[in-house]
Design a protein that fits this description.
alpha/beta; Rossmann fold; 6-stranded parallel sheet; 29 helices; disordered C terminus; transmembrane helix
């Protein structure tokens, strides 16, 4: 900043001095600087102006990315005009008026016409160097303007070229104001990975993406309404991550199908990170489970939505205070479900690893008319996901969120205990029908609170109202009442009527003010007077820490919720965090200090905190590393906390998680879709000390599968290290990037058999860690053998084949047409056919290899070698020894396939 200011001062001082030299003959040049025709002067001043223009443009680009370089043009115009005017300031004659002629000629110079301007007397006789510089600066104004127009018109084409030459691309398809902050977070992460971010938008969104260009995004304009245009973009082959962020999940899934079709044709990559925006929390969870447990290995898919991200952001702020033990959510919406899901996730993650000095997690209370219905549904849903019951941390109050009901939940001791499952509302409703222990009529006490505008529970108001001042007023009033007689007005004075009675809890004023103290249905006079004082003397703000925080799940004023309820709560409880939803605010205003108490406003938005994982795989990698690093003591580069960890080691942790997900599905034939299964039993101490193969067998991985997975993990790890420059060396040398174990698996096993146990132990530890984090697999595919001979014919030309469901598929030349005894036929690639069938003679063949099969899901799209096929609930998905898949109707599968292991349980059973 200091250097920049010094440069600006030096340049403008030089320009001012040249103006003086040109305008006044008595100002001499300094040696060569300022002499007419001095090239050195032109170079020095030109370089200075260029530096100032570059600095100005960079500042403007940071503040207003994508805007035209108005600052640069202003600098050039000002300097050119000043230098030209100074050069012509002394030139005038009878035909050329003083000052006016100088202005006209200066404007002409700025426009690039520096020749032909002079007075009749030949002024200026010698062209000053200031005029030469003015003419050059004026010309550059035109050039800069033309370049700015060119860049603004062709910037998207330049972005396309930069994406085409990039080695890897992270693609973001569409966005809106709610997801803009997520795009910014992705851009920062991609920039650290030295990848390229391609932001694919429609032409109407161009004006909204200028600031994102400053974050490194390259904008690709296409017609998003035409899936063909999206599919034909040339960047999909280089794509390593994909984000679909429009607000409509249906639109996102349609676009995903088009992109998938293109990707399958141009790449064989697996487990590409995929984030699809699905705002409904339960729909997002369901879609995640389906994709995680599906038959498509192309994606490592996850879903994200505004409710989930907002819930995470709110709970982060609440838990960080370390003083909150209960979160009270007012109203029911998608945010309510997301808060419950996020709190459950945090409990699971805390069970796996708890950072030092981490605050305790709060419980959650739902306050709404249908709160108990929500609580039961949430409990059923979480049990279906394999989690334990919610009754330890989730309660419900079946009341409309109002001041009195919320005060009773915030201060449950006033109602005789914490509110639970709607009991608080029942207790508060019963108090009007019971006699308080001090003998005061229930109706009087209930009305005393009502006269205050229902601003508190009656018993809580009665206790808090007894301040010292009120006590003295009550004593004085009682003393005056002893002197009253039926013939004299009760404490009446010239200021107004006296308070005389409370009828059914109602304060009334009368001119005569007298009622008998023993009149039936009325309390004694001193109790009535006490209630009257308390009803007109509300307590002050409650600054006690009640360990509560309030979140309004709906915008203020919706669902019959008082629009000022948040403000009233903040006035009564100024130290309690209160979060009120306001859809009008900027999502980045979360950091602004509250105006009243601890009343904060928030907006639903996908504002992911920087450095935080926004998908389950990133969080799993982060937590696995944090627990390992804590156990190791943070004493090396490998064991630094995640926030300080080098990107190479972060990527290695991500690789482990993603590769494990792939191995479990592809090698072990398990599914990650554990919806509806029973929760895991706690791991016994004996099992934690058992051999790796025994631990793996308990969760469904036999020895052969475990060895194959250990080999696949070693090979994937070796590929990752080689990509970052590591090579084999007889001894380990981190400086030169050498490792002795960077060899093929077979070589490692023959040289160091003890490494096998280490690899198996690492595999078991990773799988158990994922299970602790809620990512549980279960066996899905079972081994079957086809029974019955078939006939087969190889075609030398391509032909069209129609499935039983009526789908037309195209088989290519060289494929085999296989026909069974029922007359059903299907095509097979030559390699798959040769590995699956043995020749019996002529055109008869017998199955010789086992296949894997599982029950299909209704509507499931199965990628076959001939195209995509849609399965029904009664169908089976079969996979051959070459990885090819096809769909078999249920009745046909029952006739022609039998388990290879007769004792095995059918996959669909």
């Amino acid at each position: 900043m200091v250097l920049r200011r010094a440069l600006i001062a030096a340049v403008w001082t030089s320009v001012a001095y040249l103006c003086l030299v040109a305008a006044f003959s008595w100002v001499p040049p300094v040696w060569w600087f300022g002499r007419p025709g001095s090239v050195a002067t032109e170079i020095v001043v030109g370089a200075g102006l260029t530096a100032v223009c570059v600095s100005s443009y960079r500042t403007q680009d940071r503040e207003r990315p994508g805007a035209r370089p108005a600052g640069v043009m202003a600098i050039l115009l000002t300097s050119s005009a000043a230098l030209a005017f100074s050069s012509f300031s002394r030139c005038h004659d009878p035909k050329n008026l003083p000052f006016v002629s100088a202005i006209v000629w200066a404007l002409g110079t700025v426009r690039g016409r520096s020749q032909g301007y002079s007075a009749a007397n030949g002024c200026p006789r010698v062209t000053p160097v200031a005029l030469d510089i003015a003419a050059i600066a004026g010309s550059f104004v035109l050039y800069v303007g033309l370049i700015a127009i060119f860049v603004s018109v062709f910037s998207t084409e330049v972005d396309r070229m930069r994406v085409q030459v990039a080695r890897s691309v992270t693609a973001v398809v569409d966005f809106d104001n709610d997801s803009r902050s997520l795009v910014t977070a992705v851009a920062r992460a991609v920039r650290k990975d030295k990848s390229q971010l391609a932001l694919i938008v429609s032409r109407g969104q161009l004006n909204a993406v200028r600031d994102l260009r400053a974050e490194g995004a390259r904008v690709i304009v296409t017609d998003l309404d035409k899936l063909g245009s999206l599919e034909l973009l040339p960047l999909w082959k280089k794509t390593r991550q994909l984000y679909l962020l429009t607000a409509s999940p249906t639109t996102n899934l349609h676009r995903l199908a088009a992109i998938e079709a293109r990707l399958r044709a141009v790449t064989n990559k697996q487990r590409l990170p995929l984030i699809v925006r699905i705002d409904d929390p339960w729909q997002a969870e369901s879609w995640r489970a389906q994709r995680l447990g599906g038959s498509d290995p192309l994606w490592g898919a996850s879903a994200l939505g505004i409710y989930e991200v907002t819930a995470e952001r709110l709970l982060d702020r609440i838990i960080a205070t370390g003083q909150t033990t209960r979160v009270i959510t007012c109203g029911t919406s998608g945010l309510t479900l997301a808060l419950c899901a996020d709190l459950r996730r945090r409990q699971i993650e805390r069970g796996y690893y708890t950072a030092p000095n981490a605050p305790e997690l709060p419980s959650l209370t739902i306050v709404a008319k249908n709160a108990d219905e929500y609580r039961k549904d949430i409990d059923v849903y979480h049990r279906a996901l394999g989690y334990s019951a919610t009754d330890q941390w989730l309660t419900a109050v079946n009341e409309l969120p109002a001041f009195a009901s919320l005060v009773g939940v915030i201060k449950p001791e006033d109602d005789g205990g914490p509110a639970k499952d709607g009991e608080a509302g029942a207790r508060r409703g019963d108090k009007a029908q019971t006699q308080p222990p001090d003998g005061e009529p229930a109706t009087g006490r209930a009305r005393a609170g009502a006269d205050e505008g229902d601003t508190n529970g009656s018993k809580g108001l009665h206790r808090r109202a007894r301040t010292l001042t009120q006590a003295w007023k009550l004593i004085a009033l009682r003393a005056s009442q002893r002197w009253q007689t039926p013939s004299r007005p009760a404490a009446a004075d010239q200021n107004g009527p006296a308070v005389s009675a409370v009828t059914t809890g109602e304060v009334t004023a009368h001119g005569d003010g007298h009622r008998a103290a023993d009149e039936p249905g009325h309390a004694p006079t001193e109790h009535r007077a006490q209630d009257a004082l308390e009803s007109h003397s509300p307590p002050g703000p409650d600054t006690e820490n009640h360990g509560a925080a309030v979140i309004f799940a709906l915008p203020a004023g919706q669902a019959q919720i008082d629009a000022m309820l948040g403000t009233r709560l903040a006035a009564r409880f100024p130290t309690m965090p209160i979060f009120v939803q306001d859809p009008k605010i900027d999502p980045r205003q979360d950091t602004i200090a509250p105006l009243a108490g601890q009343l904060h406003t928030f907006r639903l938005a996908m504002n992911v905190p920087y450095g935080r994982g926004h998908d389950p795989w990133e969080r799993a990698a982060m937590l696995i590393h944090e627990r390992y690093a804590a156990q190791a003591g943070h004493d090396s580069d490998v064991t630094k906390p995640w926030a300080e960890l080098d990107e190479f080691y972060r990527g290695s942790n991500r690789r482990v998680v993603r590769n494990t997900l792939w191995m479990v599905e592809k090698i072990a034939r398990h599914t990650w879709d554990a919806y509806g299964t029973a929760p895991d039993e706690p791991v016994s101490a004996e099992l934690t000390q058992a051999a790796p193969l025994q631990r793996l067998a308990v969760i469904g991985f036999d020895r052969d599968t475990a060895m194959a997975m250990a080999e696949a993990e070693h090979e994937d790890w070796a590929r990752y290290l080689r990509r970052y420059g590591w090579r084999y060396g007889p001894t380990r040398d981190n400086t030169r990037k050498r490792r002795p174990d960077l060899v093929p698996w077979a070589t490692l096993v023959s040289r160091s058999p003890e490494k096998v146990d280490g690899a198996l132990d690492f595999l078991a530890t990773t799988l158990y860690s994922l299970r602790e984090l809620g990512l549980r697999s279960r066996p899905l595919w079972q081994r079957y053998r086809r029974i019955g001979d078939v006939t087969a014919k190889r075609h030398i030309r391509g032909w069209t084949w129609t499935t039983r469901s009526g789908e037309a598929m195209r088989a290519r030349a060289g494929d085999w047409e296989v026909t069974d005894g029922d007359g059903s036929s299907w095509p097979l690639r030559n390699k798959a056919f040769r590995s699956s069938y043995a020749h019996l003679g002529e055109n008869r063949w017998r199955p010789k290899a086992d296949v894997f099969a599982r029950a299909a899901r209704d509507g499931e799209i199965v990628g076959t070698v001939l195209g995509q096929s849609v399965a029904t609930a009664s169908d089976w998905v079969v996979e051959g020894c070459q990885g090819e898949r096809w769909v078999v109707p249920g009745d046909e599968f029952a006739r022609h396939y039998q388990p290879s292991n007769p004792d095995a349980t059918p996959a669909g059973g």
